[in-house]
Each structure stands twice: as structure tokens, then as C-alpha cells.
Amino acid sequence: MTVTVPTIEPGDAPAAGAPVPGVLPDAPWRTTWRRLWGDRGSRIALIAVALLILVALTAPLLSRLGGWSPTAFDADAIDPYLGGLPRGPLGGIGAEHWLGVEPVTGRDLFARVVHGAQVSLLIAFAATAIVVAAGTAAGVAAGYFGGRVDAVLSRLMDLTMSFPSLIFMIAMMSVAQDVNRVVLMTVVIGVFGWPGIARVVRAEALSLRHREYVEAARACGCGPWRILTRQVLPNIAGPIIAYTTLLIPGMISTEAALSFLGVGVRPPSSSWGQMIAEAVAYYETDPMYFVVPSVFLFVAVLAFTVLGDALRDILDPQGGRP
Known about the structure:
The chain is mainly α.
């Protein structure tokens, strides 16, 4: 049996993006990964995000490697004659305490920072999951069904967005006392965060509801659930993924702000915002106590923002552009 392989003449080069005869196209996730890894800034952000997630997942192991738990006091690491300031340079950094210690208490900063990463990223990821699930469901329903469903859900989005969310978060977190603070913060942040992604998904669903393949599926007798899960959602997955990645740095900042204001995570649990709030009183006498959690918070927000921007450019190149 003779197999004929098509040839391409010099003047017959395929257009950019066109399939090449005899060559299978890459899977979408491979193309996305290649473009993401090919950009230097995106590659650095991706590595930073992976390291932060690894630190959060292995926080108990890392603190044991450092030799201190986040709640253990070390009276020998502070000088009682200097108001409890750390002994040694740079806030007590040394072989015993890798990132120094807290003033007055002598608690190990490395152990508290890695456990703070666990709390901050857990709240950010969980709140983002709630926001994306609720916002996607509401946006798809409003955009696909239209009419009264769209009117009710759109007014609900407007009502939720009209609330001064930070003030309501502070009030709700202050009133609720004997509850799990991590769970409460996750729910409160999620309740006020869903309308943004709901509007994005609604606009995408409106543009897809009358497309040919959706009309064909409807003509074949497919129900709304099948059309939504098989035709609509797969075609708006790119913008949803891009928006989700951009939500995470905002969630990290919100958790840090609430903890900084004293209504978030409470001791003995640690978070970056809480540590920064406690360090404000020592930024002149022990600047490292302020710098360490601030650097971790800055790197986390910056890395997720850069990664989200890169994913948006790849998965939703026309999003937000005229």
C-alpha cells in the first residue's frame, strides 16, 4: 500500500494559525502552557506561585525543619533590658531563627510566616472557589434564559455591588465572635465577591445563546442543562479561568486587610495581615519584623497578578479591549 504525503510548495505556506497537513494540532492546554512558559515574566510568576503553594502545603514540615512551632516562645532570643527587642542584628536572624523573631514574645518569624501563608492562601482559594461557582451559575442563568430570570439576577448583582463591602465585612466579622474565623472570613468574602464574575459570564452567555451550534442543539431536542454544560460553559471556560486567576490576589489582599484591622484571623493563628498589624509598632526599632511578612504578601499578590494577566491575554485576548 502506497501512502502519499502532501507536500507544501514554497509559495503555498499556510497562514498563521492554520492547520498544517499531516500535523496534529496541539491540545489547548499545551498551547497555553507553552505560551505561558515561553514568556519570562509569566515563567517567574508561575514559579513564585508554585513555591508559595508548596510552602503553604508543607508549612508544618517547614516549621519542624526550622526547629520552632509558630506559637513557641524563646525568651533567650529577646533582650528584656531593651524592651523585648530581638538579640542580634536584623531582628535576630541566625542559625537558630532563620528570619528572626518577634519582639517581646520571641516567636520564630519563619514558622509564623509559613503558617501565615497556609491561612492566607487557604482563605483566598476557598473564597475564590465560592465566588467563581456562585458567579458562574448566576451569570450563565441570566445570560442564557434572559427575560425575568435575567432581570431578577441582574438586580441582585446590582444590589450586592451597591453595598460598601469592606464596611459590611468588618461589621459581620466584629459581631460574630465564637466561630471559626477562617470559615467565616471565607464565607463573608465570597458573599460580596460573586457579582463581578457573574457580569462577565452573563455577557459571554448572551453572546453565545443564539450561536448556530446552540440553536442546532436546541433543535435536536437537547434540554437547557445539556446545552449549558456541553455548549455554553466549555466556550466561556477561558474567560472564567483568566478571571479566576485575577481574583486570587484581590482575595489575598482582602484577607490581609481584615486581619490588619483586627477583625480577621486571631492569635494563636497567624496570617500576613495580622503580622503586619503587630509589626507597625516596631517598624523603627525592628524593621525586619515589618519587612518579612510584607515581602511575602507583596510577592504573592504580584505573582498571582502577573500570572492572571498572562492567562487573560492567552485565553481571553479580546477581554476588556475595544
